[in-house]
C-alpha cells in the first residue's frame, strides 16, 4: 500500500575519512580506499584483514571473560555424569547458538536437553518456568544461548533449586553482574575481549570451541562457522571485525555444507553457491525464524541437527509453509498499522500501535518494515487478555533500548539492544505509555534525525555499470550492518521500454544513460512508484548481477526527476571519484 503522508527524503554523499589518504598511499585504488575508510579500515594491514578474512582473525575464546570458568564447570558435569539443559531463544540467533552448544557438548560425551521458549505462550528470555523444565528433565546445570543476561529472577530460582547456571548472551547487560551465575557476554564492561559486538551464535561459538579444545576433541571449526554465520547475519550485528570473519568463512562453508538439513533448506529457498549474506538474511533466515513466529522453534533446531534426508526434506517444507503464513500475517499487521498511523498528523516521532487481532509472532518484523518505510522507531503490540507482547525496531539515529529503558520499571519484561527491543506490558498501561514515549521523544530527539537521509558512496554514468564493476564491489562482501552494500548515484537515465511488473508489486525496467548505454533496473515493491521512472530521472541503487541473465542490474533505492537536480549545482560538494580512476 502507499503511505499517504509525503515523507521528506534527502540524498547525501557519505564523507570520506582521512584514512583514505593512508590507504591510497599504501597502493589501494582511490575508489576502494574510500569505501574501506568509510568502514573503519585505517591502514593496509586492516584492509588486508577486511578483504581476506581467515580463521587467524578469530580471537581466542580464552580472551572472553567467563569462558574458562564455564569450561571447568562443564568438565565437572561430565565427570559427575550430570545432564545439562540448554535454554535458547526462538529466533535464528538463539536456535543456531543452541545448535552449536548442543552439538559440541554431545560430541564430548555429555547428555543435553535443549529447551527453546514458545514465543506465543512464554515470550522472550530465560525464565523461572525454564528452570522447572530443566529440573524436571533431570538437569543440574543450565546453559543459556542468546539470552539470560538480565534474567536475575530465573538465576536466583535456579540456585534456590540446586541448579548451576552459565549465561552466554550478547544483549545489553544490567548494570550489575548476575549473582550466582557464570556470565559470558562480550558487552560486559568488565571484559577485555577485543570485539564486543558478537551475536549470540558468536558467543556460543567461542564456548563451543573452548569446550572441544579442553576435551581434546577434533572438531572442524568450519562446521561450527556455517551455523554461527546464520545467527550472526540474521541478528543484524555489525558485519565488521570478527563478525565479518565468522560471516565470510561461514558462508563459504554453507556453499559446500554436508548438513542434509541445510541442503534441503537451501533447495527449498532456491539458494545456490556462492551463498551471500543476502541469501541468508532474506531466504534462509526467514524460514528458520518462521517456526518460532508461527508455531514452535523446535523444528528449526531439528533441521539444523538432523542427519535423516527424508526428515530434513519434510522439515524444510514445513518451514517454507510457515514462512508463507508468516508473510500473510505480517502484511495484515503492516497495512493495519500504517492505516492507523496515517490518521496522525503530524506523525509522532515514535510510532506505537496494538491490536488483539495481530499475530504475536510477526509484530517485530512488521515493526521493522514500518520503521524503514516511515523512518520512525516503531513498537507494535499483540494483545492477549490483560497483557500485550510487543516488539520494537528503530532507525540508525535512535538507540531505542536506551530510550525505552527510562520506563523499564513499568514493564513486565524488557530486553534487546539499540535497534531492536522486546517487551511485555499490561494492556491498561498502553495508552499512557504511548503518550509518555511520544512526549519523551518529542522533547529529546533531534527532528533532523527523523528526516530520511539516503546516502550514496559513488557516482557514475550508466556506461560504467558492467560486470567488472560488480566483481570489484563483491570484494567487500558479505554486506550487512557496519558494511552496507555500496549505493551508487546514477543519472541521467531514461526508460527504454515499458515497466514489467511481477510478483507482489515488483518492477523491472530497461533504461539507458545519456550515451545510450543500457542498464536494467529492478525495484522490489516498486510498482506504485513506476510513474517516477518516466522522462529523465536519476536513481540511487545497488549494483548486482542478475542470477538468471548474468547481466548487471541496478536494484533501486530511490529516484527523483533529473531536472530537479541536473547540473553541477545539484551535487553536495565535489563529485565522488569514480571507480575507473584506479587506472
Quick summary of this structure?
With 583 residues, the chain is of the alpha/beta class.
Q: What does the largest sheet look like?
A: 5 strands, parallel
Second CATH tier, the architecture of the largest domain? Alpha-Beta Complex
- Into which percentage range does the β-strand content fall? 15-25%
Tell me the strand order in the biggest sheet.
3-2-4-5-6
Number of helices: 18
CATH class category of the largest domain: Alpha Beta
Helix content range: 25-40%
Average of the residue pLDDT scores:
92
Spans of at least 5 consecutive residues with low confidence: 565-583
**C-alpha Rg, in Å?**
24 Å
Shape: globular
Quaternary organisation of the protein chains: single chain
How many domain regions? 3
Distance between the termini: 46 Å
CATH topology of the largest domain: inorganic pyrophosphatase (n-terminal core)
Which structural category do the helix and sheet elements fall into? alpha/beta
